[in-house]
Every structure is written in structure tokens, then in C-alpha cells.
Amino acid sequence: LSPTVDFTGEVNGQSLLVNASSTANPSGAILEYRWNWGDGMISDWSSSFTASHSYPELETTEVYAVRLDVREQGVGVVLSRTKSFTVSPDPATLPVETVTISVATTFAVGEVVRAVATVRAPDGTLLDDRPVSWSKTNTKIGITPVGDQVADIDGRAEGTVTLKATVEGVTDSESLTITAPVFNDATAGNN
Questions:
Q1: pLDDT of residue 91
Q2: Contact partners, residue 136, CB within 8 Å, separation at least 6
Q3: d(CA 10, CA 18)
Q4: Residue 20 burial (10 A CB sphere; 0-12, 13-18, 19+)
Q5: What SS3 state is found at 188?
Q6: Which among 65, 167, 160 has a CA at the least distance from the CA of 109?
Q7: Under a CB-based contact definition with an 8 Å cutoff, are residues 173 and 164 in contact?
Q8: Cβ distance 170 to 121 under 8 Å?
Q9: pLDDT tens-digit series, residues 80-92
Q10: Is 117 within 8 Å of 131 (Cβ atoms)?
Q11: CA separation for the pair 68, 137 (Å, rounded)
């Protein structure tokens, strides 16, 4: 009787941990295991039924077809089983592709609006841990950062100003219009 080849795998970050303990050998002979990791790397034959492999830094999610080869020690007959595993890039290593500002583009002197920068990698992954550097082209607004990618913008003088958000050299900008102050009608009639 031939061994029944099977294995499980667990992706942890950009590493894959595999376990072939479910591979059964009715003859009782010692088994040897070899792993083809699907990225061009192949392990040496080993009597250990567990192994791990680290994939190179990825910029996009990849699916790897991992093949387990099994043979009885000293016997040339090889049995195989292949399973696919999805490995995603570590967000900390992804480059910034886009920065997009969301903010009200027209508001009055004295009003405060919230600006949010959305930062994405080339594959669309949200990079919500990247700090934003906020800047402006003049003094018509004030900028108060309230988080890595959030700032309160207060209107200080009428006119237009460009708000910029920059992350790792990638910039987005929004043209803002600051209008005359809005007065409360309830207080205007109390002269």
C-alpha cells in the first residue's frame, strides 16, 4: 500500500507554515518530505513533516501552488499533493501609490471642516498607518492634525487656498474656497 499524501498550511504574514502529519503510510516505513513552495524554491528531502517558508516582499497578493512530495526513505517512488495558498503583502512594506483628500471645498470664515486623506498602495490596499504631512499655500486656513490621516481645517480669511496632503513623496491637493462669515440671524436682530 502507498502512503496517502495530505497536508495543511497556515499563512502568517508573508510566511507559510505547513504540516503533513496527516500523511499516512500503511507500511510503517519512515517517510521523507520535500516542499515545492511555488515561487521557484524547493526544499531538500527531510524526515520532518513540518516546514515553513518565507516569501519575498510582495507588492500585490499572490497565489502560490505548493506541492508536497513524499517518498519512503530510500525508495524512489514519489507521491505528490498540491494545494494553493494566498499570500498578501505586508502593508508596512508597500509603496504609496495614491493619496486622496476628502474635504468640503467651500466653507465660511470661522467654520471648521474635517479633511481626511486616504492612502493606497498600487494594488489598492488601504495604508491607514502612514502619517500625512498637511500643508497650505497661504494663511486663509489653519490646519490642526487630529490623527495620522485626519486634520481639522478652519477658515481664517475669505479667498481661495490649496490644501495639500503628502505621504512618502506622493501628494494630492484640493482647492478650497473660504466665504464670508455666516452670522446667526437670531443675534443679528438684537441691536
A1: 80
A2: 143, 161, 162, 163, 164
A3: 6
A4: buried
A5: helix
A6: 160
A7: yes
A8: no
A9: 999 999 998 878 8
A10: no
A11: 60
What is the Rg, in whole angstroms, of the alpha carbon atoms belonging to the chain?
29
Q: Kindly report the three-state secondary structure assignment for every residue of 11-69.
A: EECCEEEEECCCCECCCCCCEEEEEECCCCCECCCECCCEEEEECCCCCCCEEEEEEEE
- Beta carbons within 8 Å of 85's beta carbon, 6+ residues apart: 9, 11, 16, 38, 63, 64, 66
CA–CA–CA angle 156, 173, 95 (5° rounding): 135
Are 31 and 73 contacting, i.e. CB atoms less than 8 angstroms apart? Answer: yes
- Closest CA relative to residue 107, chosen from 180, 183, 178, 184: 178
Confidence of residue 1 (pLDDT cuts 50, 70, 90): low
- pTM greater than the 0.85 cutoff: no
Assigned C-alpha cell, 156: 481664517
What local confidence, expressed as pLDDT, does residue 160 receive?
A: 96
